[in-house]
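Homework help thread (please don't just give me the answer)

Our assignment gives two proteins as sequence + structure token strings and asks us to describe the second one. The first is just a warm-up. Here they are:
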Amino acid sequence: MKTSRATATYPVGMRAVVIALSVAISIQAMLPSTATGQEDRAARNAAVVAVLDTGITAHPDLGWRIRPNGSGRPGGVVLPGYDFVSNPFSAADGDGWDGDPSDRGDGVRPREAVDRADCRSRVSSWHGTNVAGTIAAQQPSARPNLGIAPNSRIVPVRIMGRCGGNTADVAAGILWAVGEQVPDVPLNPNPAVIINVSLAGPAPRCPLSLQTAIDTAREKGAIVVAAAGSSARDTVAMTPANCTGVVVVGAVDEDGERAPTSNFGDEVTLSALGGDMATGERNGVFTTTNTGRYRPRNPAMGYYQSSSAAAARVSGALALLAGQNSEATAGQLVAQLLANTDPFATGQCDAGEGNCGQGVLNLRRLIIST
């Protein structure tokens, strides 16, 4: 398959606030618990979710650990993954593709950004850990309802690093995630049924290599969930939101109104809570993160916002549905998801009727229904 490394993709815009584990309080405590008498059955039918993102950091609520030699070790809800960041600088691990999807940090120090016109100085986001936590983090008694589908399993696929990533790596990551053979890369032993892609990049149309990978994933029965993006722009010119066959997710705030930064357009399938931390840090989405400024340090809890968080909530909801009915097709799962949305009230989608999707995910109703 011919691919291009010219199109850059970047993490969806977000702002995170890190708080100590000992004082973490979840704003999601009002959701009904997903811990029910059906846990054993759900665990046997655990849905596999591939998180294509910045990788993953060690965290007790996820189970990923770091060995003494610095390499990552699967555990808990996290299965073996892969690192598809081909650019050594972006990877920050001294090489290109490799078998360790640990997040080395996407932060760029000021001195590192001096000679890079396409890359600004920023602290690390720990974006992949944020997303994985929203989907599947475990639920200690002090932090109920941390992960939406705690019986699901995460396959971390690292496709972004410092200064973003590229289309070829993203396409390879999608193919590998669903069990396709990628040259010189071992097969994924745990093909995903849901692929979460919380990134967005400007593109007048979906790149051919990316659309081909998405088509292949869908042919294998997987659902590709993508963030609409967080630059307050039309999704018609943002990828992968403008790719065919993708569940595109916009973000709303606590009041169900389009988040100010959320992208919008005909491509948006539905919206979900993504938060608006401009009105207070706890108006974001509570999740797993890391205390490191540029490189990983200690596990922590924190809040993040944007359509990344919204997409992760949708992926978690789909994983919950898939775990309850392992025989359901992708189309049936998406139909069940959309049946648990509430229509926008007049004015809540200020981008115009239909430009924020069918409605807002009612996660409480979906959880109760399962």
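The one we have to describe:
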Amino acid sequence: MSATLATWTRRPTRRNASLTALSRQDQYRDGLKSKRSVLEVLFPAVRAKLFQLLFASSTAEYYVRELKLRSHLALHTVQDELRKLSALGLVTSRSTGFHRFYQANRKHPLYRQIHRIVELSEKSPRTRHAALLRPQARRGSKKKQRPKLSHLPPDRPINWGTLQRRS
């Protein structure tokens, strides 16, 4: 087993956890959390992250918990997305008895296109998240107002017409 694979097979230690926390701090500091890649705009966040991990390298092979650690997503979320991608045939899997390894299916007709989108996404500039949101209403614009009802004088008797006979 390679050294990098061995670090991901163990439970996260304080050292691994601090590395994860540092990478998150770097992302916030660099403003990456406020910017979105092409993948994140085109696909849901979970799918975009898994596409980035699985389709960036043609030979990359990851097991589920390794994908969980690298993507910073919940295990169940990663499993659900892998199930969907497997049903479509976009990823293939193999089992060693202890781990189920996933990798991009190079024989799938969409492999080249997705691989190309992932490559271009890494090279293209990131888009500000605020630019993707719907603009807020201007404060100066007024909503249509209903006409005010004329109030009856206080000395006028109430006549609802409910007790009158109909002819």
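TA reply:
I won't write it for you, but here's a hint about the kind of observation we're looking for: The chain has one domain: 3-132.
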